[in-house]
Each structure stands twice: as C-alpha cells, then as structure tokens.
Amino acid sequence: MKKGKLRIAPEAINGWWISLTCGLYWFSFAMMRPIVAVYAASLGIKGAALGLLLALYAVLPLLAAVPGGLIADRIGRVVVLRAGALAMLASGALFLAADGLWLLGAAQLLAGLGQMAVWLAVQVLITGPPGPRSERRYATFSLYMALGQIAAPLIAGVIADAFGYRMVFAGYMAASLLLTVSAWMCRDEDAALASGTARAARGALRARREPGASKRREQAASGEQAATAGRAASQSGAAARTGGFRTALGRAADVARRCAELARRPEFSVMLLATFTALFITDVRTAYLPLYLESLGMSASRLGLLISLGSLSVLFVRPLYPRLARRMRPPQLLLLTSAVSLLLLFVTPLLQGTYSLGLLIFATGLALGVNQPMTLGMISGSTQPDERGLGVGLRLMANRAAQLFSPLLLGAFTALAGLQAAFVLAGVVMLPLCLASVLLARRGERRATREPGEEERGADEAPLQSPPAASMPSASDPASPALSPRTGGTM
C-alpha cells in the first residue's frame, strides 16, 4: 500500500521564504544599528559629528517613504526586494572597510536605502492574495521578525567581545548575504496571478481569431503603418514628453493636497505625533543607549543583552494590549504609554545597575510596543479605505523623520552638555509633543461624542479607534502586514 506524498502548497513555501527574508532583515538591522554608534565613538567621532553620522541613515528613506511604493508597483516588488538586499550587502562591505567618518557615512546612506527597500517589499509581498492561509502567514512573519530583533543584539555583543566591533559588521554582511539568497527565492503572488490571468485572456482571444483573416489584415495594415510611423513618432514625441511631465506634476500636486487634508484631521494628527515621539524614543534606545551603557564600563555582551530586552518585551504586547484597550479610552491609553516611554529619557541617566536598567528598558519597551497597534488603529479610524495606503505612507515618513532628528538632537545636546544631560534634554523636547498628542486625542473624542449620527460621519470626523488584536504588529517598525496597503506604499 503506497503512502500518499506530503504536498506543501507553493503559497505556503513562498510565505516561508518571505518570512525568512523578513527575519534576516531584522536580524541585520538589529545587529548593525546599535553598533554603529559605539564603533564610531571608538574612532574618535563624537558629539554633533556622531549625531550627523547616525542621522544619515534616515535621509534617503525619509525622502522615499511615500513614492517608494509607486516605484515598487512600476518595476516589481521582487525587483525592489532584490535590489535592496544587494544594497545591504554592499553597505556591509563599506562598514567592514570603514575607518573614518566618510566611509561610515556612505555605508549609512546605502544601508538606509537598502533596508527601506527590503522592508517595503516584504510587507507588501507577505500580504499576497487573500486566502485561508493568510493569518498563518502573518503569524509566521511576525515570529521571524521578533526572533531577528531579539537574537541579533545578543550575537553582536558576543562577537564584539571576542573579535572587536568591526567583526560585527562582518556578521551583518554575512546576514545580508543570506538575505540576498532568500530574496531570490521569493516571488510576487499578486504579479503571478495577474500575469496568469492576462495569458489566459490572450490565449482565448487568439483561439477566437481566424488565422487566414488575421494574416490578411496584418498584411493590409503593414503598408499604412510603415508610411505613418515616421510622422507619428516625430509629432507625438514632444507631446508625450510634455504630457508625461504635466501628468507627473498633477499627480504630485494631488498627493500633496491629500496629505494636507489628512494632516488637518485631529485624529490623524494625533497618530503622527504619537508615532513620531514613539520612534524618537525607540531610536534613542537603539542608537544612543549603547553609548551610555558603554560609558558605564559594560561589556558588549551585557550591552547586547540589555538592548535585546527592549525587543523581547514586544512579545508580551499581544496579550497585554487587548486588555488595556478594553479598560481605557484612547486618550488615557496614549497618556499612559507616553508617560512610561518618556522614563527612558528622564530616568536612564540616574541608573547604573544592570538590573535596574534592564527593568527600565523592558517596561519602556512594553509601552512603546503598545503605541504601535494603537496608532495603526488611529489610521484605520481616521481614513477611508482608499486613503489608507497614503495614511500608512505618512506614518512611515513620521518614523523616518524621528530617526533623522533623534540623533541630530542627541548629538547637539551631547556636544553642549554631555551624554547624560542629552537624555534629559531630549525628554524635555519630547514632553510637549506627548502632551499635545494627548490633548488632541481628548478633543477628538469629545467632538465625536457630541456629534450625532456617528455612522454617517466621514473619515475626517471618525472617532479614535483601537484595532483588533489580530491586526497588531509584533515588531518595532512601521507597519503591520494586516494594514499594509497592497500598493506597496508602506515605506
């Protein structure tokens, strides 16, 4: 009696490759980002120069956050994924060769662009066509994401203690190489489905045609086409270029107008402010906290352990967030998460022990993790379905703006007042923004309560909402696959 062979659906295999690529992306990022600051400091780069170096990472992603999805749609998401993986691999070579500010700066620019392309592509690819395995794909995707973030700082710390900081960049390069291999195994299921449908339609059309009649029509038309081709090319070339330029300008103006309309909505403004402050604090934890821990004389292994606690805390957000959302209104939850997150800036300079710092990092990591699904829910509640892609793109612009201004501000404060004071001064800057987001949230809630006919209101009057637990991300960046637009405008 023959046993049936175990068959795995191609969609499941592709989902695994995409999830593996995602895990390798986060592993590479979490290995590279914290070590850049301490390595640069070991080369004598300090103060404002260090802040500028760290900020270079976010310059190109900030500019490409919204149009990146349009580029992916035009040339193909898998093409963008593979190009980003190759850029990460090249940035690893630059990091490995860097012994000064200029090469490190070039590596930062290339790493930022490549990682943006990879993260954009994997978010769109994992959505795929809707199907019965979608939830399982998202769960696998989130698991690999979390594992990459937790494991990388630990491994980077061990490598740094044993072989030095530069060898951590060799590990980053090796992870990027594996990522490149896995990227070549991924495929775009949406594009495959569309091309298959198009081929079927073309085949049906050819079957309905009469071969003899088609040949005669082609011969009759060929002379006329040859006679008019030259005239048409010369007349239409300039018009096409002018029309294309005007169309591009019109589209850019339309996108700018829609962005301004979204930003004027109180609920959407709350989301942008909350996203900016959360990512600002997260980037301080990733880029500048290692400098403080090193100044306390901690080994790289202990440093990596403490940094990984911030990522480990995200695993506890999934059971915690639904309970908080049921018991607290959005303004109250926003106030709680903002207050706890700010402790990382105000309390860190007062602590020197490993256990106390670990507890602080874990607690603030929980608060920052709760902030992410909450702000994603605000996008859902303050936008119409056809605006959601643009809303996520603006959220990612806020993410990148935070990653740009965080090191610039910390670098300037460190040059003026020292590293410990820089944490407190950054907290003083973030405090008014956190309060403004809470006040705007309360105002939006009061307006939503006063106005009748809630079900008939437009998106610009929608109350603040919390997303269901199923749509929660489990990572410290940008967007949940469940909310990522299929257009690719997510990074």
Overall description:
By secondary structure, this protein is mainly alpha-helical. 80% of the residues lie in helices and 0% in strands. The protein contains 16 helices and no strands. It has helices spanning 10-42, 47-64, 67-75, 77-97, 101-127, 134-163, 165-185, 189-208, 211-263, 266-295, 300-312, 317-327, 330-347, 354-382, 388-417, 419-450. The protein is globular. Mean pLDDT is 77; it is low at 229-234, 236-242 and 454-491.
List the helices and strands and how they pair.
Blueprint: H1 10-42, H2 47-64, H3 67-75, H4 77-97, H5 101-127, H6 134-163, H7 165-185, H8 189-208, H9 211-263, H10 266-295, H11 300-312, H12 317-327, H13 330-347, H14 354-382, H15 388-417, H16 419-450
Q: Which short descriptors sum up this protein?
A:
single chain, about 500 residues, mainly alpha, Growth Hormone, Chain: A, disordered C terminus
Write the CATH fold name.
Growth Hormone, Chain: A
Shape: globular
Q: What profile does the largest beta sheet have?
A: none
Q: Summarize the helix and strand pattern as letters.
A: HHHHHHHHHHHHHHHH
Number of strands: 0
Estimated share of beta-strand residues: under 5%
Helix content: over 70%
- Number of helical segments with 4 or more residues: 16
Quick overview:
It is built from 16 helices and no strands. The protein has 491 residues and is mainly α.
